[in-house]
Amino acid sequence: MVTVKKFLWHHTVLEQDNAMASPRTHKTATPERETSSDASQAELAEENRVRHAIVEAVLSHRLPPGTRLVETRLCEAFGVNRSLLRRVFVRLAGDKVIELQHNKGAIIAQPGPEEMRQVFEARRLIENGIIRSLGKKATPESLAAVRELITQEHAAYKAGEWSKWVRLSGEYHLQVARLLGNTELEDILRSLIARTTLMIALYDSVGSNVCSFDEHNEILKALESGDGEQACTLMGAHLHGAEVKLQRDTSAPEIDLVALFTQPL
User: Fold this and answer.
1) pTM for the model
2) pLDDT per position as a tens digit, 153-207
3) Mind listing the pLDDT tens digit for each residue in 121-157?
4) CA 204, 208, 213: angle at the middle one, nearest 5?
5) Are residues 189 and 123 in the same domain?
6) 86 with 118, same domain?
7) What is the CATH number of the domain that holds 227?
8) What local confidence, expressed as pLDDT, does residue 165 receive?
9) For the chain, what is the domain count?
10) Which of 2, 88, 137, 141 is deepest in the core (most CB within 10 A)?
């Protein structure tokens, strides 16, 4: 039995060595392969273009919750085929930007009250712990990047750049978490922030400042002074306030998708 095993092992190694030495393994790039690769990159770029446009429309309140995404209209608006559009839909559904409904197609997501409550509760539990830990180690120098984000938030809000402001509001919370140096916590929080950012974009009225940069500033001041408990209290109140300010409208508006995505911004 040992002899057989040794033979089989030796035979396998020889096959692997022969395969490694075989000229067939040294594949050179052919024009066909390069063309195929270029085509794949071009398709991915198109997917990203369409995905970005839809996300921007959601963040800027031009695609309200419940809006039905009619494939034929979107294909016309973007000049793409259904196969590419459906790949974009799968990605957007994974990000919870849209919902794919059987026999109904795709609609802009409509997070329910319980889902919103649970996501905001998870954020409060995690971010309060982060803030409490940071209160013991954060310095004005380490918090400089956070202060710069607040400045950018304020500028975007004043300029009426709503989608940019919503993103910066989420980035503020992520930047605070990064200071702790715990990448696992940061990854968990990133997912939760992405979902609440979408909820704010969907249910906040334009310009209402649900995720207040003034409150961000008060939290930062408490951290800069080394008062972790005060910062923690402020963060909890800030997240709770953001949750209760959101007004959920369950109506499904009619949107002209071709006009939406072909008119200049």
Assistant:
1) 0.65
2) 999 989 988 878 888 888 999 999 999 999 999 888 988 888 887 787 777 765 5
3) 999 999 999 999 988 788 888 899 999 999 999 999 8
4) 110
5) yes
6) no
7) 1.20.120.530
8) 86
9) 2
10) 88
The whole-angstrom separation of Cα 224 and Cα 233 is 15
Place of tokens 């803030």: 131
> Which residue type sits at 188?
I
At 49, which amino acid appears? Answer: R
Partner residues linked to 101 by β-bridges? 105
- DSSP readout, 72-107? HHHHHHHT--HHHHHHHHHHHHHTTSEEEETTTEEE
pLDDT of residue 1: 46
Q: Helix, strand, or coil here: 17?
A: helix
Q: Give yes or no: residues 117 and 239 share one domain.
A: yes
Evaluate whether residue 7 is within a structural domain: no
Alpha-carbon gap, residue 67 to 74, rounded angstroms: 13
Q: Please give the pLDDT value at position 31.
A: 55
Cα of first residue to Cα of last residue in the chain, in angstroms, is 76
Query: What domain range includes position 172?
Result: 113-245
DSSP run (H or E) holding 69: strand 68-69
Clarify whether residues 106 and 203 are in a common domain: no
Is 133 inside any structural domain? yes
For 186, residues 6+ apart whose C-beta sits below 8 A from its C-beta are 174, 177, 178, 180
* Residue pair 89/50 in contact by the 8 Å Cβ criterion: no
Same-domain pairing of 83 and 161: no
